[in-house]
Amino acid sequence: xxxAAGRDAHADDxxxxxxxxxxxxxxxxxxxxERIHAACGELRIRIPREVNDLLRRSRSLVxxxxxxxxxxxxVLWPASIALARHVAxxxxxxxxxxxxxxxxxxxxxxxxGRRGARVCxxxxxxxxxxxxxxxxxxxxxxxxxxxxxxxxxxxxxxxCRLLLxxxxxxxxxAVRPLLQLxxxxxxxxxxxxxxxxxxxxxxxxxxxxxxxGALTTTRDVVHRDERTTIRIATLGPRVADGSPAxxxx
Length: 249
Prior knowledge:
Blueprint: E1 9-12, E2 25-26, E3 29-38, E4 41-48, H1 51-57, H2 59-66, H3 78-88, E5 97-101, H4 107-114, E6 118-123, H5 126-138, E7 145-148, E8 160-166, H6 175-187, E9 191-196, H7 203-211, E10 215-223, E11 226-235
Parallel strand pairs: 5-6, 5-8, 6-7, 8-9
Antiparallel strand pairs: 1-3, 2-3, 3-4, 9-11, 10-11
């Protein structure tokens, strides 16, 4: 399976065999390993093999699903793949503090970490933070942080110079707080990178970023035999696609 640039994006279901160790698990739920090829090398991301396994084992997740708060963090979304590859094409991020907001499995943050950034994985779901830790360690990241974060009330770390937003607008209420956080990072001279698959609920976020001077592009991702066009916005100094990175402080 390949993406639009001819790179593979495939999964290893983690099934045990004589040549393999037992399948990894988290909270008693088996994980599978997705292998994403990027300019910084192969990124290995573990996610639950079946989302329904999570719901069967967690009363809190069942209650959240009843409130229409589904475990989106348990899925590897095409926008995360596109954003990770976008970051991976850029120069070293050594000396930068990056925040992978609503990190889910943490793919975008892992890519930034592989480019040298010190990464803060931020999510409201403790299960997502646990999964992001697993994936950060699996990919050799050191010095990272996993922080409980509610973007409607919490403040970003003061040193954040790179804010990663991968497919976060599942409802209109997310737009205003995300733009406020983008403004904070932009005001410090930092960069905001956002990606999403043209969700209507994200259109106002895109409009707001463009009004602030963001540059936009699109990339196709082929994952599990499905092609998805992803839009990517860059607000602030460009740190991807080989453009010079801003000076770290």
